[in-house]
Design a protein that fits this description.
Length: 233
């Protein structure tokens, strides 16, 4: 059987940080620009961290620059370490994630990796908090591209660097909670797997036309059957 590459989104697909990411970004933005609420109009769902920053700067009337982004990123990553450690009633690992990753991790025909809009260090802070970081061999992150649609190709080339083998796009699965996750799989030719554990309902995600759609990741048999080519919508 051919190798399959599974690319998991982080926020609201694997984990709910209990708002730690948004709080850390708000603190970083406020430290740089004052208490301007620059971020409050910005939608985070499925966006890359640098895309969120660019939109916040636009609302605030400031121009993006590499220097501003590095200053913001450094502060955000520091605050995130503190914010993720705080108690919050919404903070949790999404249903079924741990047993699913445990099972998939046993299989030599499956490579687990990340495809996320988080900067790599932020993804690591969040996933290490929940003891999930170790499952993933590599990832495509916001450090690689601020446009999410470019990330599947980055992940595929990283797979090739690591394994010495190419991977056909139809053996790549992009798993995420937003229409943006679904949309980034399509131009690459990857299969999209939507999970309704985020801000989008099952029916909203269905409208984005994913290849597969689940309420959450708790139905392991359905997920394993999907990898065998069954259960397509
Ligand atoms: Mg997400």
């Amino acid at each position: 059987m051919g190798m399959k590459l599974l690319l998991f989104d982080v926020d609201l697909t694997l984990i709910n940080s209990g708002g730690a990411g948004r709080r850390a970004m708000s603190r970083a933005f406020t430290e740089l620009f004052g208490n301007t609420n620059g971020l409050h109009k910005v939608s985070f769902a499925g966006r890359t961290d640098p895309a969120i920053l660019r939109e916040a700067l636009e609302h605030h009337g400031d121009e993006w620059s590499e220097v501003i982004q590095e200053a913001f990123k450094r502060r955000y990553l520091e605050y995130l370490v503190h914010e993720i450690a705080r108690n919050h009633e919404d903070k949790h690992v999404e249903p079924g994630v741990e047993p699913l990753l445990d099972t998939l991790n046993q299989r030599s025909d499956i490579t687990l990796a990340l495809l996320t809009g988080n900067w790599r260090a932020g993804a690591r802070t969040k996933l290490e908090h929940f003891s999930l970081w170790h499952y993933f061999e590599f990832g495509a992150f916001a450090d690689d591209a601020w446009i999410r649609n470019e990330l599947p190709a980055v992940a595929a080339s990283r797979f090739e660097e690591n394994s010495g083998h190419g991977i056909a796009p139809e053996n790549v699965y992009v798993i995420g909670d937003t229409p943006r996750d679904v949309a980034c799989a399509q131009p690459f030719g990857a299969r999209s797997v939507a999970v309704a554990t985020g801000l989008y309902s099952y029916s909203q995600l269905k409208a984005a036309n994913p290849d597969f759609l689940y309420h959450d990741l708790s139905n392991m048999n359905a997920f394993l059957n999907m990898l065998e080519g069954k259960n397509e919508i």
